[in-house]
Structures are given as structure tokens and as C-alpha cells.
Write a structure and sequence with these properties.
The chain is an alpha+beta fold. The chain folds into two domains: 18-51; 57-137, ACT-like. Chain A, domain 2 (Alpha-Beta Plaits, 2-Layer Sandwich). The chain has four helices and six strands, in the order ααβαββαβββ. The chain has helices spanning 18-30, 36-52, 74-84, 113-124; strands spanning 59-69, 90-97, 102-112, 129-137, 145-146, 153-154. The longest helix is centred in the N-terminal third of the chain and has 17 residues, at 36-52.
Length: 160
């Protein structure tokens, strides 16, 4: 059996809130990993795989789930403004208030994969957004509204 050499390592310094660090340490302990670095590398690999998934121009349907701090309406206003730039893709949204001034919002979305990822990237840049997750499928929503003569239907989410 041949042992491959360890790839060159690079150091990274990260500042985290104390509570988040405590949660990370608990996860490392639960998974019986030798270091935080191993856990962080796994999390980064997962996010990189998810980031590249579905960026092939396919029309997708899915949800975007956000958890954010609802401080003084600034975050909600920024989220609404971002969503306004993606009216064809955002079909509906559901919002609930959580404990400790946090909010949970779920967006039902459909459209080209690039547009859905662009929407997520724009939402992610909003200060106060703590978590965001896009879950998609290639199965599409049926047309929601019929219009015109001849029974043609309007497509949702920019689907042609």
C-alpha cells in the first residue's frame, strides 16, 4: 500500500462568537475528531460541493431557508429589497418570529439554477443573516395560472 504525501497545509485565522465556538467544539467532540481543523475542513468541503451543484443552467424548483436576526427591521427591509430583484424566481415566502429576536423565513423558488444561486449569494451578503440553505429539485411546479385563448398557460419562475 502506497501512502500519499500530505498535501501542503495553509493556516487560517477565524474569529467566531464564543457561543458558536462552543457549539463547534461540541460537534468536534461528538464526532470524536482530533481537531477543530478537521471539522472546519469538512464543513468547507460540504459547502464547496453544494456551491458548485446545479450551476448548469437547469430550471430548478426548491426552497431557500433563512435564519436571521430581525434587528429594527433593517434586515427584513434588505431581504425584501434583494427578493424584489428576483420577482420571477420567488414564488412565495413564509416568515415566523423565533425567540431572541430571530426570524425564520422560507422562500419557495423556481428558475434557472444560476439565478437561484445569485439570489442566495445576495441574501447571504446581508448583515444579520446567520444561516441560509438552498434545497432544489429538477421537478418543477405546474403552471399556476391559465391565460389567453387556446388554453395556454403562463410559466412560473422564468421557465420557458
Amino acid at each position: 500500500m502506497t501512502v500519499e504525501p500530505i498535501s501542503q497545509l495553509a493556516r487560517l485565522s477565524v474569529s467566531l462568537p464564543a457561543e458558536l465556538l462552543a457549539q463547534l467544539d461540541a460537534m468536534v467532540a461528538e464526532r470524536d475528531l482530533p481537531s477543530r481543523s478537521q471539522m472546519i475542513a469538512e464543513l468547507i468541503r460540504h459547502e464547496l460541493a453544494e456551491h458548485s451543484e446545479g450551476r448548469d443552467g437547469a430550471i430548478l424548483a426548491g426552497t431557500i431557508t433563512l435564519i436571521y436576526r430581525a434587528e429594527s427591521g433593517r434586515v427584513r427591509q434588505a431581504l425584501a429589497q434583494a427578493q424584489g430583484s428576483f420577482l420571477k424566481e420567488v414564488i412565495s415566502s413564509q416568515h415566523v418570529f423565533l425567540e431572541d429576536d430571530q426570524s425564520l423565513e422560507v422562500l419557495l423558488v423556481q428558475g434557472p439554477s444560476e439565478r437561484l444561486h445569485m439570489l442566495c449569494d445576495e441574501l447571504r451578503r446581508i448583515r444579520g443573516v446567520h444561516q441560509i440553505r438552498l434545497v432544489t429539485t429538477r421537478a418543477l411546479l405546474p403552471p399556476l395560472h391559465a391565460h389567453g385563448r387556446g388554453g395556454k398557460t403562463a410559466q412560473v419562475g422564468g421557465a420557458a
